[in-house]
Design a protein that fits this description.
heterodimer, A: mainly alpha, MetI-like fold, 12 helices, B: alpha/beta, Rossmann fold, 6-stranded mixed sheet, 10 strands, about 25% strand
């Protein structure tokens, strides 16, 4: 209405047209740049995979999975490291799941939105960037020495939990904050207490995002070697590792151990172990996909 | 001008400007009977002023909400209708800077007394929101959530069915109770939210523009539903749609805001009176569409 009355007296606006050729060219260039970016990444990944597969596949066998380390490459296996990695993953999950979600729920749902809370969140973000070997030194001081657990699998798992907790907490906070405020109000309006609101409305809505964050962080934990070396993972373990006693090793340490040997055969064994780690991580990501689909079956924003 | 044009229903302004051009249907049965006893009061506000930090959003409200009636709050955007509504179930307590002067009572009890838990208030004063907000759970779980958290001991299946029937949703969803509440259409989602609200048997149902995200057909369904629910519940509805206030409510409260941007009540009365014979020039301008 206002426009209709103003139009006759207003000066005629200069006509303008887009430069169609330039616009089209810019669009094509942008598309090309994005395509190139993904192509470079895919090629690098394929090259890496091929390299590993070519040298590793000949060494893969049932005996390789169930055997123990040996000086003779044709007899060597990864059983202690494989079981060590799987146990480690389970313990890390058991520690990070309650601690990570608990801390995230506190920071996102309970803590007042003040400077201290923001400071805490920023610092958790910083912790995610601390080199993992620093966590190893901390783990050595606290779990191995102070708590007297010794250089056992559990000490390593606790240390790795500290490495990935910041990642889990940050991902969970993001997932919780992405839940619309209307979800919280909907629960409150039915007479829910804060705890009932969190449990009944916010957590189910944030669960897919939280689970994705946890499982991605788990993949990181499975691939870590440096902090475990500091905590005291052994390079040569000939028995199935126990959580609280005896030496332990994990697949990345086994890889490191074999990869630094000069003989060609041990390079092949390292590559074969890398394939096993990749399969483990692939399975974990598959699990993430399934869990996510299951948790989000009722969610449609 | 304080409000934007989007608030004003689009229609031809009447040339002489006096007669509201809203077609009011079947209002006669809602006209108050002269010698009938006044309906009992459920919610009463005395001298209520509402603040967000230093900003006074609503000032000096005196208002009574009658039992088993539909009361509509109308007025231009930003005049504090929703803030006033959210005071009745202490939803505003969730806003850290919120502050209130005056008293609000529910059945004579001070809602803001020290020993009153806002959680307990909200169980008795339910709320339906502008945008349907079903939980990310199954339809059944959506309705059962409220009773569960409030310690309902009876048969939940029966309660869920009864609530869905009362919300006129049962026939639409009875074969897919395990499916997501979020997969329903907008109108169905809103009726699901009404079903979950009445499942906890509140006394008062607050509705904050419940139809603004819905198509006309779903809007009409909700309005019909409100007329049904009024047999048992007291309903307070905020609406930008004056036809809706005229069609659906028994009492209308017209609010606007002063030069200090604080909202206040200009006029309240039975809906027929407000729309056909407003006492205040501001009300007349608003209901006739000349002022938004």
């Amino acid at each position: 209405m206002a426009g209709a009355t103003a139009a006759p007296s207003a000066p005629a606006a200069p006509r303008f047209e887009p430069d169609r050729m330039r616009r089209k060219l810019a669009g094509t260039l942008f598309y090309g740049a994005c395509l190139a970016a993904i192509a470079i990444l895919i090629l690098a990944l394929i090259a890496l995979l091929l390299n590993v597969l070519v040298s590793g596949v000949p060494w893969l066998s049932m005996d390789f999975l169930t055997g123990v380390s040996s000086r003779r490459p044709e007899n060597a296996g990864i059983w202690p490291a494989l079981i060590g990695s799987i146990q480690l993953a389970i313990i890390v999950a058991a520690i990070t799941f309650p601690l990570g979600i608990g801390a995230a729920v506190y920071l996102a749902e309970y803590a007042p939105d003040n400077r201290i809370t923001r400071l805490m969140q920023t610092n958790i973000g910083n912790l995610a960037g601390v080199p993992s070997i620093i966590y190893g030194i901390f783990g050595l001081a606290i779990f191995v020495r102070l708590l007297g657990l010794g250089p056992v699998l559990f000490s390593g798992a606790a240390t790795l939990s500290l490495v990935i907790l910041p990642l889990v907490i940050i991902a969970s906070i993001e997932a919780l904050k992405a839940v619309p405020q209307a979800q919280r109000e909907g629960a409150y309006a039915l007479g829910a207490s804060r705890w009932q609101m969190v449990k009944g409305s916010v957590l189910p809505a944030a669960a897919p995002g939280i689970m994705t964050g946890i499982i991605l962080a788990m993949a990181r934990a499975i691939g870590e070697a440096a902090p475990l070396v500091v905590v005291g993972a052994a390079t040569l373990v000939l028995t199935t590792p126990q959580p609280f006693e005896g030496g332990f090793t994990v697949l990345p340490i086994q890889i490191f151990n074999w990869a630094q040997r000069p003989q060609e055969a041990f390079q092949g064994l390292a590559a074969a172990t890398i394939i096993v780690v990749l399969i483990l991580i692939f399975l974990l990501n598959l699990l993430a996909l399934v869990v996510r689909a299951r948790l989000s079956r009722h969610i449609q924003w | 001008m304080p409000a934007d044009l989007a608030d004003v229903p689009v229609r031809d302004p009447s040339p002489n400007g006096t007669a509201p051009s809203i077609k009011i249907t079947s209002m006669d049965d809602r006209r108050p009977v002269a010698d009938a006893a006044p309906p009992p009061t459920v919610v009463e506000m005395r001298g209520v002023s509402l603040y967000y930090g230093p900003f006074r959003a609503v000032r000096d409200v005196d208002l009574t909400i009658a039992r088993q009636r539909i009361t509509s709050l109308i007025g231009p955007s930003g005049c504090g209708k929703t803030t006033l509504l959210r005071t009745m179930n202490r939803m505003n307590d969730l806003v850290p800077s919120f502050r209130m002067d005056g008293t609000v009572t529910l059945d004579g009890r001070d809602l803001f007394a020290r020993d009153v838990d806002p959680v307990a208030v909200r169980r008795r004063v339910g709320m339906v929101f502008q945008k349907p907000n079903p939980f990310p759970k199954s339809i059944w779980e959506n309705v059962a959530f409220g009773p569960k958290i409030n310690g309902y001991k009876g048969n939940l299946d029966e309660l869920v069915e009864r609530s869905l029937r009362r919300a006129a949703l049962w026939d639409d969803v009875k074969d897919k109770l395990k499916q997501s509440g979020m997969a329903l259409s907008g109108g169905q989602q809103q009726r699901l939210c009404i079903a979950r609200t009445i499942a906890v048997e509140p006394e008062v149902i607050l509705m904050d523009e419940p139809c603004s995200a819905l198509d006309p057909r779903s809007t009409l369904q909700i309005e019909e539903l409100m007329a049904e629910l009024k047999q048992e519940f007291t309903i307070v509805i905020v609406t930008h749609n004056m036809q809706q206030a005229a069609r659906a409510s028994d009492t209308t409260v017209f609010m606007t805001m002063g030069d200090d941007r604080a909202g206040y009540i200009v006029e309240e009365g039975d809906t027929v009176g407000i729309f056909t014979n407003p006492q205040h020039q501001l009300t007349e301008d608003y209901v006739s569409g000349r002022f938004g």
